[in-house]
Amino acid sequence: xxxxxxxxxxxxxxxxxxxxxxxxxxxxxxxxxxxxxxxxxxxxxxxxxxxxxxxxxxxxxxxxxxxxxxxxxxxxxxxxxxxxxxxxxxxxxxxxxxxxxxxxxxxxxxxxxxxxxxxxxxxxxxxxxxxxxxxxxxxxxxxxxxxxxxxxxxxxxxxxxxxxxxxxxxxxxxxxxxxxxxxxxxxxxxxxxxxxxxxxxxxxxxxxxxxxxxxxxxxxxxxxxxxxxxxxxxxxxxxxxxxxxxxxxxxxxxxxxxxxxxxxxxxxxx
Length: 270
Hints:
alpha/beta
């Protein structure tokens, strides 16, 4: 069965997109057919996978996830909604296809306000190709609005990247409770938490050590064992539309490999 993983947090700047993009690349390197869906209107996962210029060309000529959701349908004379085959970007990384995002998603809740079953639109658009992939990774915006709801409606799992700062940690419990409630409303009671990932961790300090201890104490086995440090190689690889595994930074690569190997186990992926 295809594993469908949503990467989400209610706070931005916690490494959510970096983890989604690099886990997709990691899976591709493991010869797993993978689909990365960028649902954040900031489109950073798209930029990190194919670069700004390639994204511009593709979005103009082929379309984006906003077209699948029908967000720009009112702009078309015939009102035609594009299909998965229209908008997919093949081989963004080895064995990794991409559905890019677009700024139009900022208004998607208003655009689709009167649309029935609007939280199921994305699933309906890609349901026929889900079985073609071993893994689908959804990079969600830092909120629980319509794009995130569409992802959670058909996800099998979700992950929660967090940084070791007060505001990021403060929202973990709230997010878990809201996702649990939302999954019930979306008729997806089987949605599982695949783990909390400590990300963008700065230099060792007493405060960060105490914060990490609190997170691990409060959320116990939900927290993955490793952590991803805030390294220049990580941001540079995203800027270059390349994965961390081509960065040459052995320490960064080792950290991502450790986290993703543990995530594989939780997802029961071989």
